[in-house]
Amino acid sequence: MDDAGSESTAVPLDLLLQITDGFSEERKLGSGSFGEVYLGVHPDGQKIAVKKIYDMPGVDEEQFQNEFKNLARLQHRNIVRLVGYCHHIQEVPAMYEGKLVLAEKIHRALCLEYMSNGSLEKYISDECDKYDWHTGYGIIKGICQGLKYLHTKLKPPIYHLDLKPANILLDENMVPRIADFGISRLFGDERTRATKSTLGTQGYLPPEYIRNYLISSKFDIFSLGVVIIKIMAGRAGYYRSAEMSSHEFTNFVQENWTNRLHETSSLMKAYSKQVKICIEIGLSCVQEDRHKRPTVKNIVDRLNETETECTYAYKKFDVQENSGGLTPDYFMNNGRPVSEVPLNNDASPSKQARTAWQYPTDMTAQQELGERQAASLPDGIYEPPRYLALYFSGRTCFSFSFGTVSLILF
């Protein structure tokens, strides 16, 4: 099979039969739209998911071509990657008007990267107790990023039209990948269409489609909202949302997660707010009026804002709790300013420092800058305490020189 950076290629049917044990029941992973998925184990040990397209004359060809074209052009860490495909025409004996004739049988399959943790569906319980908050948030953010790629980065955009936990796969690190584009539609300039073909899954369909068969990007947003709420509240909690006001339901979910968060008081407020915003996003996505639903870009931007607040709270906590009360301002106020201190090549091959604060390597400096014996080390790069590394992330370098430790800002 191809590696991650290569284009998808044709795979012979004989090889697919070999690696799936003839599409045996033991290798069956599940069923998707218009096809069944099997585990394929290549002779070199690589595992792939093989989606065998159903033999449905008059439907299969268009379906296969649609899904293949959709998948072949997608390159994103939150989208399942297509690694190969099979399109094999076989002549088989068949009876026609009382005579034995040769008929064409078309075998079609898509070969996809294998996701070892299966689908999100098996992790959504009644009480959403199969993952911690950081994992749950990462899944929400990843799904949103994948959907943003489909809606905004492709020309024309792709609407998934069947977004649900069963179509969100998780890799070994619980990173979500959107899968199963069996009913995806490509949309050009016309962003809203009416169709009477059967799409999606009951419970994830927006009201405008149920009533008038309208399709737009807000179809996926509605489905996304249902997924987010189920991640946040669990399967049972999701149905409670219909019995409560938005405010009551938000407080209910926030309280449940706050009770489960094992963070210090310094971080609890930030993470509790992140929980609240995520459930607010989910509820805003399932509004009946599609025009009031946010775009996926709006959603990702709002999630990014919560991460900024959590990062700030984490840095503040790390300084207060792990530095013995020594804040970055302390270092600024007690160091000796040095102008235009050049860095050695190991520290930064192409930059010069604008400002630096130097500290003598006595016992006080050792307490301030960490446990390492600065004076006994040769000139080079200093590994700063964790709280300073976080606070000055991406903007600083510590170095040793002539018995001093320098904190250098760019």
From TrEMBL:
Any matching Pfam family: Pkinase
Name assigned to this protein: Protein kinase domain-containing protein
Keyword Cell membrane: no
Membership in a protein family: Belongs to the protein kinase superfamily.
Top-level taxon: Eukaryota
Domain Protein kinase: 23-307
Binding locations of ATP: 52
PROSITE patterns: PROTEIN_KINASE_ATP, PROTEIN_KINASE_DOM, PROTEIN_KINASE_ST
GO MF annotation: an example: ATP binding
Keywords: ATP-binding, Kinase, Nucleotide-binding, Serine/threonine-protein kinase, Transferase
SMART domains reported in the protein's UniProt record: S_TKc
Organism expressing this protein natively: Aegilops tauschii subsp. strangulata
Keyword ATP-binding recorded: yes
